[in-house]
Amino acid sequence: MSRVEIIVWPCLVGVLLLALWEIAVRMLDVPSFVLPPPSAIAVALVKDGPSLLLSLIETLKLTIAAFAASCVSGLLLAILFTRDRRIEAALRPWAVVLQVTPIVAIAPMVVIWVGIDHVERAVFVLATIVGFFPILANASFGLRDVDPGLSDLFRLYRANRWQRLFRLELPAALPAILAGARISAGLALIGTVVAEFSAGSGEATGLAWRIAESGARLEIARLFAALLLLAFAGIGLNFLLAWVEKYVRSQRHLDARSG
Amino acid sequence: MLSLRDVALTYRNGVRALDGVSLDVADGAFVALLGPSGCGKSTLLRLIAGLEKPSRGSVSGAENTSVGFVFQDPTLMPWADALTNARLALDLAHMPRLEADARARDALHAVGLRGFETALPAELSGGMRMRVSLARALAPEPRLLLLDEPFAALDEITRFKLNDDLRTIWMQRKCTVLFVTHSVFESAYLATRVAVMTARPGRIASQRDVDLPASRSVATRTEPAYAALARALSGDLEQATAQ
Ligand SMILES: Nc1ncnc2c1ncn2[C@@H]1O[C@H](COP(=O)(O)OP(=O)(O)OP(=O)(O)O)[C@@H](O)[C@H]1O
Ligand SMILES: [Mg+2]
Questions:
Q1: Domains of chain A
Q2: Does domain B2-65+143-242 have CATH number 3.40.50.300?
Q3: Angle of helix A220-252 versus helix A207-216 axis, rounded to 10
Q4: pTM for the full model?
Q5: What ipTM, to 2 d.p.?
Q6: Residue ranges of the ABC transporter domain (chain B) (predicted)?
Q7: Most buried of A28, A153, A227, B46, CB within 10 angstroms?
Q8: Residue-wise pLDDT tens digits, B172-184
Q9: Pick from A154, A167, A252: CB nearest B78
C-alpha cells in the first residue's frame, strides 16, 4: 500500500461516515440537542472556534507543564529506585497507591490544599500524578535493562556511579523512557481535562469547562466542536512524541536491521 | 607475574566451570589457551579480570595492573559510534578529549578500521564490530590483555593480518597476553606458550613452550617446525578432551 493510500482510505471512510450521519440525523429528525448533524458542528466550530481555541491553549499549557513535571519526577524517582533495592521496596507500594487512586476522588483534597485561589495549580498537580507513572515504570525497567557485558566492562574500567548512570544506564534506557513519555503525554492530557472537570469551578478557563458549559446549555454542537479540538490536540501530541521516538531510533539505527 | 593456584569456580546454578586450575603467566609472556567448547576458558578470563570470584583457590598478580578485555561478543554501546566505543576506557579514566580521541583513532587504525570512526555498531559487520572491541581494549595500553577468541569471526586474510599486528603490538608494548582460541594453528603462530584445558570442569591439562623464532611471518606458516608444533598441540588437545 502506498503512502497516499494510507491517508486516502481512512479519510474516505471518515467522509462516508459523516455523510451517513448527516443524512440519518436529517431523515430521522433527531433534535440537535440530542445529536447535531456534522454541518451544525462545523458551523459551531467556525463560530466558537476562536474562543474554544483559547480554552484549548489554556488546557494544553497545563498539560505540557504537567507532562514535563511527570517526566522529571518519574525519571528522578526511577533513578532513585534503581540505586538501591531497599529504596524501591520502601517506595514502590506508595507509588502504586498513588497510581490506583482515581484523581476525581482526590481532586477535592488537592483543591483545598493548593487550589483555593488557583484552580490551575490543583489541575497541574492532579495531571502530574496521572502522567508520572508510565515514566516511572518504563524508566526503571530501562535503567535495569543494561547489557550485562557492558556492565562488566564498566566494572572492569572502574567507572564511578555517575559515569555508569550517564554513560551506560540512561543511554540504554532512552528508548524505554521515550515509549513511557508517549503514554504519559496522552495521560497528562486526559488527566488535565478530568482534573478541570472535577476541580474546576466558574473561574476555570480550560476546555473542560467549555464542554461542561455547553452541556449545561444544551449547545451540543459546540460541545462536539470542543471534543473535536481535544481529539486533534491528542493526536498532535502523540504524533510529536512518536516522531521524537522515531528520530532517536534512527539515530541509533536500531530499526536499520529489525525493521 | 600472574598466578592461579588450584582455582575452582562453581556458578550459582551449580555448574562446575573450573576445578583445580593452576597456571603461571610470566610478565611479558604471550600465552594461548586452547580447549574444547564449554570447558571454562571464558570463565577463566573473567576470573583473572576480577569479574568473577573463585569458589576456591587464589588468583594473584592482576589486581593492580591495567587490564584490557576483549569479550567473546563485541559488547559495544549501540548508541555510540566506533570512535566513542574505542574511547570508553579513556573517557572513564577522565583523559582529556583531544588526547583520548587521538589514541582511540590510532587504535582503530591499528585494527584496520580507518574511515569507520563515525560508524555505529549496527552499521558494521560482525568482524568489524569485533575489531572495534579490540581497539577499545588496546587504546588504554593495558599491561595485561585478555582476548577471548577475538578473531573467530574474521576471514583468513584479515585474521592473519591481525595476528601479525597483535604480535607487533605485544612486542612493542611488552605487555602480557592471554589469548583464548579454538585453533591450534593460531595458538602456535601467536604464543610463546600454549596451555591446553580439559573438558568441563576445566583445568590445565598440559602446557607446551613454543620454540619458534621470535619473528614470525607468512614463511612461519609453512615451516616444518610450525607444522610439527601444530600436530603436537592437536595431540595434546585430543588427549585433554578425552580425559
Ligand atoms: N553466567 C553463567 N552462569 C551459569 N553457568 C555459566 C555461566 N557462564 C558460563 N556458564 C557455564 O560454565 C561452563 C563454561 O563456560 P565458558 O563460557 O567459560 O566456556 P568456554 O570454554 O568459554 O566455551 P566456548 O569455547 O564455547 O566459548 C559452561 O558449561 C557454561 O554453561
Ligand atoms: Mg568462551
A1: 56-258 (1.10.3720.10)
A2: yes
A3: 150
A4: 0.85
A5: 0.92
A6: 2-224
A7: A153
A8: 889 999 999 989 9
A9: A252
